[in-house]
Specification:
Layout lengths: L29 E2 L11 H9 L13 H11 L6 E4 L1 H13 L5 E5 L5 H8 L3 E5 L1 E2 L2 E2 L1 H6 L5 E7 L11 H10 L5 E5 L15 H6 L3 E6 L12 E4 L2 H10 L7 H12 L1 H24 L3 E3 L5 E5 L7 H10 L2 E2 L1 E2 L8 E5 L3 H37 L41
Bound molecules: pyridoxal-5'-phosphate (PLP).
The site of pyridoxal-5'-phosphate has 13 residues, from α3.
Amino acid sequence: MATPRPNPGILDIAPYVPGESGKSASGREIKLSSNETPLGPSSAAIEAYSSVAGKLERYPDGQATVLRKAIAEVYGLDMSRIVCGAGSDELLNLLAQAYIGAGDEGILTEHGFLVYPIAILTNGGTPVIATERELVSDVDAILAKVSAKTRVVFLANPNNPTGTFIPDSEVRRLRTGLREDILLVLDGAYAEYVHAPGYDAGAALVTDTDNTVMTRTFSKIYGLAGLRIGWAYCPPAIADVLNRIRGPFNLSSQAIAAGTAAVRDQEHLIKAVAHNDRWLPWLTSELQKLGLKVTPSVANFLLMHFDGLAITAAEADEALKTRGIFLRRVASYNLPNALRMTVGTEEENRETVAAIKEIIIGKSLDVIAELNAAFESLAGAGTQPNTTSGSVGTGKPPNTTSGSVGIGKSPNTTSGNDKAPKE
Ligand SMILES: Cc1ncc(COP(=O)(O)O)c(C=O)c1O
């Protein structure tokens, strides 16, 4: 029997796997897997959200006028060029829908945000991957991937999951190197956190060119991920295109009300930046002290690498989950031995570092004990069985000795929380 078939490319999409959450047996729940803010939204946003509860039978304003006006005023932008979406995900997908078709190519970087290939494939296009240089987007590598079929370049700046950025001068060099008919999408989901010299989220480039769009979100620093609010700053012709194809009421009344209040509460945003500025460097240095390599991040998360350690990222993740701590595996980003951690509250940060330390030490003790047992077993094999005592080795059967090599513990004898679970 014939069944409906999805369009070409759709079944090539690896479904997006969101950051995990849950609780440990003791009820602990620390979710640092989705780059959400530990401060929550502005109280003004929560109040505004509730204020529309009595009017739910009404459609929302399809133009999200008050929200676009607030964004324009706060960010110093032209309101007519702002298009809002149900999260920036919706806008990224709409841009792909409008500008990528069957046979076209969209470029993203090696560890670029996973929504880009989904958006490209959904519209029959082919994702083309440009290598990064030490986990940083590489303009030359992107330009080298341009072909006659390229229609869009997606660049997260800073990127998720690496947390790295390229300066405005490099973004402009990219724009200059791209053909004029190629749309450059600058995804600034984490822009508010960044104050690194040379960084710019791209609004000026949008104003200066006809072929660059900047996308932004209320899901991160504004703490409104659950409401789904994003916005795009566009050249007028592209804003017109997005307004033609988006749902006529793509933002709910609650999203419009809460988003408007949130963006007008810049004091709350300043607090969130200050919190991040305090804890991002602390986490970086504490994790480095544990022997983890940490990619320098300018966002509200960081990437820690387990290479060279006794434990893999997957093992550490499992051990953390049993303690109720949820970080983000990034194997789907082609980073199989790394974990991404969102900056949390002070307590969450301290507890997570302590747990990682415990897990790494526990695993290292296990490895030493295993080596010890192997050494003793070899030493035992070198002796004449059942003849002498006190010559080579200990003269005792393997795995019964103590105190010879390293810490002298055999596997499975370390206690309590210091042990990583066995896979
Ligand atoms: C780089 C990047 N772009 C866009 C998004 C999507 O955000 P939104 O919640 O606005 O859809 C995310 C969310 O994780 C992200 O990391």
